[in-house]
Specification:
It is a single chain. The chain is mostly loops. The chain is flat, with a radius of gyration of 17 Å.
Length: 40
Amino acid sequence: MARTLIVLGRYSFNASVPCEGLRPLRAPDTIELDEDGAEE
């Protein structure tokens, strides 16, 4: 399913710089857990 963000009007978004820099990349062979702790 395609997700579309429809924005009408003018909006300003300020990108913030992370305090600790960039986060490390995810290892491709790890199992991801959702917010409930169940595997996706």
